[in-house]
Amino acid sequence: MRMPLNVRTIALAAAFFAALCQPAFAQRDFFSDDRQPQRNIAGGFDYYALVLSWSPTHCSSSAGEDDDLQCNRRDGKRYSFVLHGLWPQYDRGWPQNCRTGRRPFVPQQLIDSMLDIMPSDKLVIHEYRKHGTCSGLDPASYFRLSRLLFRSIKIPDRYVNPFETLYVSPDKLRQDIARLNPDLDADSIAVACAGGGGGGGRLREIRICFAKDGKSQPCGANENPK
Fold it and tell me: What's the rounded Cα separation, in Å, for the pair 76 and 200?
């Protein structure tokens, strides 16, 4: 039986993760911050945000209609959380499109190697140019670290490929992930939703924050605005 959706619950369905979130969580620019000068120096950042997108939300949107690679798999399976990117962050704000001593070129072989967890060649290229250049790492090292951190996160079975609607609160989602990943700091997981009617919407992504040495750390103001 379907449970009524209320302001304290989010619904995880086979086709989408519907959510009623606080207004700040529903805004597309939820993580933006204009108060931090953008220094944009490669390697000059405070922490990483590992961004995991909820694929069913993308696939239920107009952008996903023609996205056969991500949304129309031929093996009968579906993506759940996929790697959106690994973003160098300031404590408030973030760098982007940093200058490096080399052209931000991502070889096709490297692009192809990422498509199992990051199913868009354009996204792979975009993520390195905008975010990877600010890590101070070359493309191979950046995506190697991205895969390592992505693979280090265990996703509870109920969220991997659901075939029925589930209702959980954002806090419950964070707790479920933290319970299965005891090395994560309690404040290192943030949940964000795409906009929707009535102040709610669908799950857009979760962000998990790491120090430069790869250890879990609390997220900054980008993920936890006041």
Answer: 30
Model pLDDT, residue 225: 60
Q: Is 205 a catalytic residue?
A: no
What element of type H or E holds 76?
Answer: none
The Cα 98–Cα 128 span in angstroms is 10
Query: Is position 131 annotated as part of the catalytic site?
Result: yes
| pLDDT digit string, tens, across residues 52-88 | 998 777 777 777 667 777 777 766 667 789 999 999 9
At residue 184, what are phi and psi to the nearest 5 degrees? Answer: -80, 135
**Catalytic residue list contains 127:** yes
| Interacting residues of 226 by C-beta distance below 8 A, sequence separation 6+ | none
Give the whole-angstrom CA distance, residue 83 versus residue 15: 18
- Say which of 131, 164, 205, 223 is annotated catalytic: 131
Count how many residues are written for the chain: 226
According to the model, what pLDDT value does residue 52 have? 96
Question: Which is catalytic among the residues 58, 84, 205, 223?
Answer: 84
